[in-house]
Design brief:
Strand order of the largest sheet: 1-2-3-4-5-10-6
Strand content: 15-25%
Largest sheet: 7 strands, mixed
Structural class: alpha+beta
CATH class of the largest domain: Alpha Beta
Helix content: 25-40%
Order of helices and strands: EHEEHEHEHEEEHHHEEHHEEH
Shape: globular
Length: 264
């Protein structure tokens, strides 16, 4: 039986990473400004991909660590692994990737990534891979249409004008001249409740001493109700298992947990 040590990590073309991410990642979407793509191979077959690049709001991210050069950090934009890979493949792959980055790009001091606890999970893999939790915030950036389609607020409010117009035409939404979500809300779209968690890993240990935000204990995730696993809020799943619901005759029914392959 294969183990995580049988997984080979190597650079891959952007097109190969994009194809796998679209097939495996729960969002089905790539990040176009990713610059470094590493693949996870098992028995010679590409089964996983990690895409690194600059953050969308790079100037804001740069300030997380004092005196970071403009090219001194990366964001892990996407991480997608198929179910064919053995247990612990993700954490091993991240470790190998970091060693490769240290060797090839010694100016990279740290890596930031985000967990989407609105649609996917709260970052179990990051915690197992030595990342530190540095931020938890309520997230209203994912917009769901009545037919189940999901887009980001950024896209719909001017971040990608052509795509916003295309979506508006598809649903018959009347867009005005401003950067507003109202045309989409008027046709029944709504913001999904949830959280976004920020994780950081330090390739240069001295960068940790320059961190300008607090390191949060992992227990803060449960405390704030931000836990999510495979697209389901952990608090709801736990409640269903425990049957711990006041004024109720039993456990709360939940849908079967399903793997959903969306700053990784």
């Amino acid at each position: 039986m294969a183990t995580a040590k049988d997984v080979r990590i190597a650079p891959i073309k952007a097109s190969d990473a994009a194809a796998l991410i679209r097939r495996v990642h729960y969002s089905g979407k790539v990040v176009n400004n990713s610059q470094l793509h590493l693949g996870a191979f098992l028995d010679g077959r590409l089964e996983g991909a990690m895409s690194f690049g600059p953050s969308l709001d790079k100037r804001k991210m740069q300030g997380l660590v004092r005196d970071t050069p403009w090219n001194g950090f990366l964001e892990l934009n996407r991480m997608a692994f198929s179910e064919r890979l053995p247990r612990n493949s993700e954490s091993r792959a991240i470790g190998v990737a970091f060693r490769m980055i240290r060797k090839a790009y010694p100016h990279i001091q740290w890596v930031v990534s985000f967990s989407d606890a609105t649609q996917c999970g709260d970052g179990t893999i990051y915690r197992a891979s030595g990342f530190l939790l540095t931020g938890i915030k309520a997230n209203n950036q994912i917009i769901e249409f009545p037919d189940g389609r999901r887009e980001t607020r950024f896209v719909l409010t001017g971040g990608a004008p052509a795509k916003a117009r295309e979506i508006a035409a598809l649903y018959g939404a009347r867009m005005g001249g401003g950067s507003t979500l109202k045309p989409f809300l008027d046709i029944g779209a709504k913001a999904l409740p949830g959280f976004q968690l920020r994780y950081m890993a330090f390739l240069d240990p001295t960068a940790l001493d320059r961190l300008t935000v607090p390191v949060l204990p992992f227990g803060k995730i449960e405390e704030l109700g931000a836990g999510m696993y495979l697209g389901h809020q952990i608090s709801r799943v736990k409640q269903a298992i425990d049957g711990d619901q006041p004024n109720s005759g039993g456990a709360t029914p939940t849908h079967t947990l399903q793997s959903q392959d969306d700053p990784a």
